[in-house]
Each structure stands twice: as structure tokens, then as C-alpha cells.
Amino acid sequence: MQVGDVRLAYRVWGEEDAPPVVLLHCLGEDGEDWRGVVGRLAGTHRVFALDQRGHGSSDWPGEYGFARWRDDVIGFLQALGLKRVTLIGHSAGALTALLVAADRPELVDRLVLEEAAPPLPAAPPQEAPEQPAGPQAFDWRAKTAVVAERNAPDPRWWECLPRITAPTLVIAGGPTSHIPQEHLAEMADVIPDACLVTVEGAGHLVHEERPGEFLAAVTSFLPAPR
Prior knowledge:
This protein has 8 helices and 9 strands. The protein is an alpha/beta fold.
């Protein structure tokens, strides 16, 4: 699908008239990252798993950042005519999801933030590693962009959290995650209608390491399909 200046690839499962769920992967992955949990979700929902720009089969234009990923998702929803979706994001994808929900609240019915990259300056600052030799599954310039914005995020990103109107589920992986768990708890406090669920021992990859507990949290949070 052409969205603005990029072609975006996506996968889709489930009945066409089922409530829509859109999945946003983390840095370095693509829509296949959700394969382990999508079957359960597709039993009750129309599920879309996007390859974000610079990843998978979508275009790798060389220009990246959370504002661009946010705008790509908004354009993707509009191009497909999707309204009031459940938006589920992991890590960098979760930060993209919350920016969509804050900027265009009318598009998001429910929001799930799994181990979100918090829009607060990383402490200590991160360093972008050198690109490994050989072909990569994603554009390494996206890694550089994420590190730069994790170190110095736009302060408006944290300030916009109170504008999120969608009921929100924040999923944390406990102390074995590299994401500061206190930031996830604070995020859940700042978003007006949010709850926090911690899957102890799951670490950063909750939906991969503990798919059953991840799905239990998500399906109990989503409204029952009509």
C-alpha cells in the first residue's frame, strides 16, 4: 500500500467484518514478529500486522523517526478506512502507538503498550552500535534514529500522554527488562484511563516469552466482540 512517500507492507488475518486490531512491531522486527499470538487474536478480530518503514518488505527510504512512523500509521489507517481500531505496539512500536493515540484520538478505540520505549531521556544515554557486517533485516539507519530520539525525545511526547482518551493497557515485563519499570508505572499513572499489568520474569519480549499471559491480559482488556 502506498502511504505518503512510502510503500508499506502488511499482513492480515480474521474475518473482514470483525473489529480491527493493528499490531506495531519493535525496532529491527517486522509483522512476522506477532506470529505466535496472532492466531488467538484473529479468532475474534480482523488483525493487521504492519511492516513499519525501514523494516521487512516496506520501503527503506533512509529517513526515520517516531514522528514519521506515527504519520505512516495514521496514513495506513486512513487508506484502509479503519476507524476506532485497537492499536497494540511493542517497545518502539508502542511509542509510535501512543503518539498516534495522542495525536488522533478519534482513530483509537483501545491502546495496548507492551514494554513501551518511554518518551523520557535515556539514562545513561545510549550509543548506536556499529552496523554488523552482511545484510540486515532492517535499515540500520532506523537504529541510529531511535537511539538519537531515545536520548533526546521531543518533550511534547511525554506532555501529550494526558490527551490519550482510549482505555489503555500498559504491559510490563518486570525487572529483567531493560526498560525502566518505574517509567512504565508512571506512564500508566499519567494516561487518564490506563491500567498496568506486569508479567513477572517475562523481560522485554513479553508476547514472545510469555504468549499465554500476554494474550490473557490483552483479551481480558478488549471488549467482547458483538
